[in-house]
Every structure is written in structure tokens, then in C-alpha cells.
Amino acid sequence: MAASGIIQNMSLFSSSHPLSTNNQKAPTFKISRVSQKPAIIPSLKQICRQGNFKDSFFTLSNLIAHENTSQKCLYEAYSLLFEICASEKALLHGQQIHALVLKLDLLCADSVFLNTKIVFMYGKCGSIGDAEKVFDRMTERSIFTWNAMIGACVVNGVPFRALELYKDMRSLGVSLDAHSLSSTIKAISQLEFLYCGREIHGLAIKLGLISNVFVLNSLVTMYTKCDDIRAATFLFNGMCEREDTVSWNSMISAYVMNGMNQEALSLFVEMLNASVEPTTYTFVGALQACEDTKFGKLGVEIHAVVLKLGYSLDTYVVNALLMMYIKNSRLDEAAKIFFHMQEKDNISWNSMISGYVQNGLYDEAISLFHEMKNAGQKPDHVALMSMLVASGRQGNLLNGMEIHALSLRNCLDSDLQVSNTLVDMYAKCGKLDYMDSVFDRMLHRDNVSWTTIIAAYAQNNFPWKAVQSFREVQTEGSSIDDALMIGSVLLACTELRCNLLAKEIQCYVIKRGLYDPVIQKTLVSVYGDCGNVDYANSIFRLSEVKDVVSFTSMMCSYVRNGLANEALELMLYMNELEIEADSIAILSMLTAAADLASLRKGKEIHGFLVRKSLLLQDSIRSSLIDMYACCGTLENSYKVFNYLKNKDTVCWTSMINACGLHGCGREAIDIFTMMEKENIQPDHITFLAVLRACSHAALVEDGKRIFKIMQSKYALEPWPEHYACLVDLLGRANYLEEAFQIVKTMNLEDIPAVWCAILGACQVYSNKKLGEIAAKKLLELEPKNPGNYVLVSNVYAAIDRWDDVEDVRVTMKGKGLKKDPACSWIEVGDKVHTFVAQDKSHPECDRIYEKLAHLTEKLEKEAGYVAQTKCVLQNVEEKEKVKLLKGHSERLAIAYGLLASTDRNPIRITKNLRVCSDCHAFSKLASKFLEREIIVRDAKRFHHFRDGICSCGDFW
Per the record's keyword annotation, is Repeat included, yes or no (predicted)? Predict the structure, then answer.
């Protein structure tokens, strides 16, 4: 027989499963010839219903082999086989049967029905092209044919074609049924064409199909996808009979998709109360709603229902339970569920691994990943991404490279998300050359790709590369609407201190309509970092949205640019708007109070911290210690320090630094010793603080000892700043030759701070030879630092080299450099009063000078004060020098302090430069004569003048 021959030469199924991807030739199915005529069709239908693919083909072979088999029987048999191929998605077998049907010419009789089956089969098997070919060749089509073709387009992600077919049906006058509308609505859902959906909704009402459950469920889903949840709810509530579980599931899912978790859970409870039997999808939707931590407790109750109704073995439900517990940070419960699962799919493994990563349990995630591979489960791109994230956050380059190799072996490196995560992993591990290699090999890049690499460059101190990459994105014509990308480029502007580039980015975001409040706050911070406070302030004032973040950005900008007064004024404005400060804003306020030495403001902030229970935050408590130290009240720093029970390295370091700032070197060393006894590991900053304390207190031997144990005991390699401290310590104690030897032997010639320390000591001890060397090196290393020129000029002036002084000043002028004028300030009441030398701008100027003259006269007559004119580094007459000394800013501040306060509280003054020897002597005598403590904080340290003695021991 012809048919028998064809079947014998066809490989209808492989030795394993119809979906097998084995390319080897499947074994030939041999037909057994039988004499009797069995009841084939009923048995074939039964087998098809049971889904037994292999037996279906065996029965077909018997049917075809029988000589008396009618054409009708063959026709029905092939129809059933197309159905089972569709259900099994067995495309190869479907194509073979299609070829056999064509060979037997079975499509002649009643071909519409069988062709429809073929269209349906190809659609289900994902071969939309073959379905289209069969559909186009049909001369006659039924409503079922059109439905099959539209359904095929929807299933295979071709929604536009589905809509075209729907339009063709309408234009040809083909009658529509519920399935036509349902499939078309699904296509509209994929496209999110709300206006088209409403049109179909109207048509459903017109055709009387609005009560059909399939149409209603599709409409609910469509309105949900199109963000019209009100319409979806209205439809669902209007259902006459709500016994269909799919309807409830659709609505629950709709609420979850729109973030309406409470509504979803309320509907779930209502469904149970209505005695509607829940399904897998019901529980999945309800558990997804419980991923919101507000409903975690209800999630546990749903878990109990799952167990009660016997869904605990359903993989989909168990996966949803797993994610619910993970999102609620109940990793122990999630782990129990996971390790008791009988069947784990990729979603199960990925969920648990991702849960560990999200909660910072990177070692557990890596261990589980290896367990996944050992269990024979092949990791997909999601698992690899989780592992790459874990590697990046750990800085575990070796593990990250292992995952990279695994992605290459499994051909997953071309996946865009995997590539993006690889770029991020190498960036976090500091391997930018590897990162560049991955990025260059990417065939496709999206905004995430560019954002990741730009952020990597900006965060790893390659700002120009970040800017160049941003230019490349612009050149490619890609749409830049990613706030993170813009933020990363602005970070690069900060690193480059480039105002022009920041302005260019600002113009770009305004032009593109991206100038939102987040960008505005970032720009305020960027302009502040770039020193352009006026621009920062302008953006801040013009921004419509002013919240704690914008205020904090502006305050930080003021503080970074030395405008502490303005920062504290902004704090008052913030209070007027009733905006409550957060911890970052508090840190800026404390820094501003410390910069101004504004004890009153500092205490107000401290009170706020106590009221808001913010005192225990690590960064705040150390800043509070610093603030009190900078405001001259070391005893308050001790109080805060002693109040804290659990002190970290930063707190100990802050207290050591506070002692050093006030010249209490021994106390600083004692605290360092206590820190060691508490087994708190000191870091580089701790040793800097201790060395500075030794320097201020002339503790040379202690300083040398501490410098050694830093390397020997704690294996910390000294920074240039540590060497500068050691040189400063030796220089201040007049061990200049030893300091110079350290500079030469340790190759420190390229460190400006070292030469600055030597030059300052040379000025004090009149070491001309070494001073010449230091001055020359300092100006070579930092030719644009005005402070260095001033220091060199002062050294020359101290030894009457006025021609050299003039040369230095001419050089400064030629370079456009200006000396910072000496100024002092004092806090009286709620206001900080600032004075410069010979200041006449204060409203009470006459009274201040009168008070100062009276005090000076008393000290000259009764305390033996004699002006030290050598401190005036100007080439003028002696009388003029004396006059200049009497107008120094700190003396004006002392005089105003005496006028403004009649009590015996200390007079607290802050100066931006170091106190000169004459003002130092004047302040000592004034403290004794007035019987009042005078506290002066200069650029380096504190001076507590009490009873004619200074806390520095005349060593500063």
C-alpha cells in the first residue's frame, strides 16, 4: 500500500520525547499488519485525551495499514493527531503529518476543518510562518480558521498582525464570536492600545458577548495592562455571576500588577468566602501581594491555607511562597521551604540564590549556586547575574571570573543583562581593563550598558573617560533619559572641578526636558563641589521643590566653600518651612558650627539630636565630639565620648584628635593606649591624629615610637601625611637636620606638606640655609597655592630680605593669586561677628577701638607689655609696625567680647591663620590682668590663655 510505504519511511517520533532536540535520525516506526478490523477511532480519541503521544502514533499506524480504512476515518485520525502535536508542541512531527496529508490528498474533502487544525497546530508549535502560509492558501475559511490564526499571532508575540486579521474579518463581514474578541483583546493588551480596547469593549456590548466569561476576563486583563484599573474593577464588579475562578484570578493579578496589594488580598478573602475554589494562579497572585512587607503576616496565613488545601507540592505555589518570605526578609523560613521542596525548578533555585544576595549573604548564595550545579540543574542567565552581583559586592574577582567563564561556555555572555552585570562586576572589583574588554565585545548596548560603564569610570577616578563615554552616547544618537547616567556624568564634573562641563550638562537636561527636582539637587551639590556657590544657590532658590535633600545639598555646598555662616542661616530657613533635618543635614550643621566655633549653635543641634534619638548613629556621635572640640570645650567632648557605650574606631580617633587640637598630647596618647586595650583596631587616620597630638605637645620620642608601631605592630604603610606629621614634629622641636634627613632618605621630596612643615620651622628657628631649599621646593611643587607664597614671603621678611619679599609678591600678582586676609570672629548671642586687621566696618567700631586702646595702655603700664615689632612682616617704620600690631583681628575680637559680655565666661575667638607671637603674648597678659580665660582657635590648634599662661606652653 502507498500509505503504508510512506509511514514506514517516516521517523514519527524519537526514542525519548517528542520535544527532544537530538538531531540524530529517529528510529523508523514499523507497521504491524493485522487481519481483524479494530475499533480504532474510539481508542485513538481516548489515547489523545490521555496525552499519550507514542501510543497515538502506534494506533494511527494500525489504522493506515488496514486496507479497508475509510477516507473519513483517516481524516478524523489525522485531525486528532494535529491536536496532540499542538498540545505537545511537536513541530517536527506536525510537519511530517502535514506532508503525509498533502501526499494522500486528504485536504480536498472538507479541507477547511483540517486546514484550520493545521493552522492551530503551527501556531501552538511557534511556527507562525507556516501557519500564515496555510492560512493564505485557503480559499475558504471559517470563523474557527480566523480565530486560530489570530490566536497564533497572539501566542507568538505578533499582536499587530492579529489586529490586521481582525480588521480583515470586519471588512469581509465575517461574523465574530467570543473567541475572536477574546484573542483580539489579548493582542491589544500586548500593545497597550487602550482606545482599541475600548472599541472592542463597545463591540462586545453590541454583539451581546459582554457576559461571556472569556471576553470579560480578557477585557479585565486589557484594562489592567493599559493602566485603567478603575475600568477593570468596574467590569469585574458588574459580572452577574462570579463563579469562574479565572475571573477572580484575573482581577487579583490586575490589582497586584498595579501595586494595589491590599485590594488584591481583600478580593482573595472575598473569593474564599464566596466558596469559589482557588487554583494555583489564585495563590500565586495572593502571595505576590504579600511580598509587600505590610502584609507579611497575612502571607503566613495564606501559607496555612496552601497546606490545608493540598497545594504544598505545587511548584508554582511553592515558588511564590519562597519569594514572599524572601521579600519579607524571612530567609530562615524561605530556606526551610526551599530545602523541603521535592521538585525544584530554575525559578526555585534563582529565587533562593537571589534572596541570599539581596540580604548580603554572599557566601551562602555562592554555596547554593554550586549546589545547584551539583544537582544537575543548569544555571540560566538569572542565576549567573545573581552570582555576578554577589562577586561584585564582595570584590571577589576570582569568583566573578569563574562565572564569566561559565557564561562563555553556556553561550550566555551574549545576553544583554548578563553583559551589563559583568561590566558592573569588573567595575566593582576595580578591574577596568577587563570591564572595557567585556563592554567592547557587546554586540548590543542599551542605556543600562552605557550608564553602568559611565558610573564605573566616574566612581573609579576616571572622570574624563566617563565624559568621553557620555559624548559617545550622544554621538550614537541614543536617547539619554536615565537619571543615573546624568548623575554619573555630573559626578565626573565634580571630580574634574569643571564648572563649564556642569553648565553644559545642565543645558542638555533642560533642553531634553529632564530637569527634574532630582537633577536640580545634584546640580546644587556639583556646583558647590566646583566652588561655584552662586550657581548652586541660584538653582536652590529657583527650585520649586525644597525638601531635606535640597537643603542638605545647599548646606554642604556652603560648608565646603567656607561659608559656614550661610549654612547655619539656611538651617533657620529650613526650620521656618518646618522641614525636619535628617542625619546628613545634621552632619552639615555640626560641621558648620565647628567651622565657626559656634558653641551656642552646636549645643542647639545636640539638643535636637537628643530629642530625635539620633545620637547613637556612628557618624553623628563622632562629629559631635569634633564639634565640641572645635568650639573650645574639650570637657564636653569628653562627656559625649564617655556617654557612648559602644565606641568604634572613628569615635576613638575623634577623641584623640580633640585632645591633640587642645595641646593635650599626653591625654591623646593615653586614649590611644586605652583603645588598644579595648582591642579596637586603629587605622591610618587614628595614627595621623596621634602624631599630630605629639607634634602640638612636642612629644618627640613618643611620636617616633608611635610611628614605628604603626608599621611593626599594625602593618600599616605610612601615607605621605604621616611622614609630614613626623617631619613637622621634629621641625617644631628644632630637630631640623633630622627632619631633613628623613625627607631625603624616604624620598619625600615631592610632598608639599613636608616642605611646608620644614619651612615653618625654619622661620621659627631662623634656619636660613634649609629655609632657602624648602622655599624653592615648595614653590616648584605647588606654583598655584597662594598660601605657599605667603609663607615664603614671611620667611624672607623675617630676615629682612625685602627685595625677595617684593619678588614673591610680584610673582603672586602675575599668577593672579591673592593672599587670604587674616580674620577673627566671635559668637555673641545668635550672631557671629567677624573682624579683619584694622577693621572699621563694625557698627560699634569706635567703642571697640576705645576699649582696645584702654586695655593695651593698662597692659603696657601694669603688666609690662612691649610690642614685638618683628612680627610685622612689612618694610615700614617702627611706629607704623606698633600701630599695625594694635589693629590685629584677634585683638579687635577680644575687645568686642569684653564689651558684649559682662560675666566671667571665657571669651572664645577663632582665627583663620596662625596667631602671631605678639598677639600670643598680649593674650597671655590680658587673661591675667582681666582675670578671665581667653580661648583662641587658630589655623592649627587651640590656645587656652588662663592666668598669664597658655596651654600650648608657647609651642605652636
Answer: yes
- In sequence order, the β-bridge partners of residue 908 are 935
CB 674 within 8 A of CB 934: no
- From residue 555, how far is each of 18, 329, 367, 574 by CA, in Å? 69, 36, 46, 10
Distance CA(144)–CA(177), nearest Å, equals 9
Contact 909, 824 (CB under 8 A): yes
Which distant-in-sequence residues (6+ apart) come within 8 Å of 188 by Cβ?
159, 163, 196, 197, 200, 222
In the chain, pLDDT over 90 holds for what percent of residues? Answer: 63
Q: Strand 934-937 to strand 949-950: parallel, antiparallel, or no bridges (unpaired)?
A: unpaired
Let me know: does 118 contact 28? Beta carbons within 8 Å.
Answer: no
H-only helix segments in 746-869: 752-765, 768-781, 786-798, 802-814, 845-858
Domain 719-819 has what CATH class?
mainly alpha
Do residues 285 and 268 make contact, with C-beta atoms less than 8 angstroms apart? yes
Give the angle 835-837-842 at the CA atoms, nearest 5°. Answer: 40
pLDDT digit string, tens, across residues 819-877: 888 999 999 988 889 999 999 999 999 999 999 999 999 999 999 999 998 888 888 88
d(CA 694, CA 709): 15
Handedness of CA 58, 61, 62, 63 (dihedral sign): positive
DSSP label at residue 343? S
The pTM (predicted TM-score) of the whole model is 0.69
| Residue in this structure with the C-alpha cell 497575612, named with its chain if needed | 298
Q: Please list the residue range(s) of the chain that carry CATH number 1.25.40.10.
A: 719-819
Q: Helices (DSSP H) in 395-532: which residue ranges?
A: 397-409, 416-428, 432-441, 447-459, 463-476, 483-496, 499-511, 517-529
Q: Dihedrals φ, ψ of 834, to 5°?
A: -110, 140
SS3 803: helix
Helix-, strand-, coil-residue percentages of the chain, each rounded to 5: 70, 5, 30
β-sheet with 934-937: strand ranges across: 831-836, 823-828, 907-911, 934-937, 942-946, 949-950
**Start-end of H helices in 482-563:** 483-496, 499-511, 517-529, 533-542, 548-560
